[in-house]
Amino acid sequence: MIVMSFMQVNVSKYDGIDVQYREARQDTYGRIPASVDVKLVNDGGRAWLNLSLEDARTLADRLPQILMLHDAAERLAAEMAVDKDEAAPAPMGKAQRKRSTEQSGQAAA
Questions:
Q1: Which residue, 17, 89, 5, 85, is CA-closest to 50?
Q2: CA–CA distance, 69 with 3 (Å, rounded to integer)
Q3: For position 2, what pLDDT does the model report?
Q4: Sign of the C-alpha dihedral, residues 29, 31, 33, 39?
Q5: For residue 43, what are the domain limits?
Q6: Which of 5, 39, 96, 106 sits CB 3.0–4.6 Å from 48 for a disulfide?
Q7: Predicted local distance difference test score (pLDDT) of residue 102
Q8: Is residue 82 assigned to a domain?
Q9: Which residues of the chain have pLDDT under 70?
Q10: H or E, element range at 8
Q11: Phi, psi at residue 40, to the nearest 5°?
Q12: Whole-angstrom distance, CA of residue 26 vs CA of residue 32
């Protein structure tokens, strides 16, 4: 018996995913082991990932860590954007630009 994961993709747009457990079954070619199907829900085309139970367990084990890393990266990016906004000088109005230009000219003289 061969146990493996595989993927087939032929889609340009999808509207979410559908995940289903597939029981072990007998086929004309032999026994097909239980697996997990992850399908991209779409109107045209087909896209799905069929995972062996071992691979599905590995994915389930690693996804929380990957999502935590993603969340931490987003929080860091948001904090850096806030810090950058706070560190940036406020935009000058027309009168402030004129005074600044006059002061630079006086300093150069």
A1: 5
A2: 31
A3: 67
A4: positive
A5: 6-88
A6: 39
A7: 67
A8: yes
A9: 1-2, 88-109
A10: strand 6-10
A11: -85, 125
A12: 6
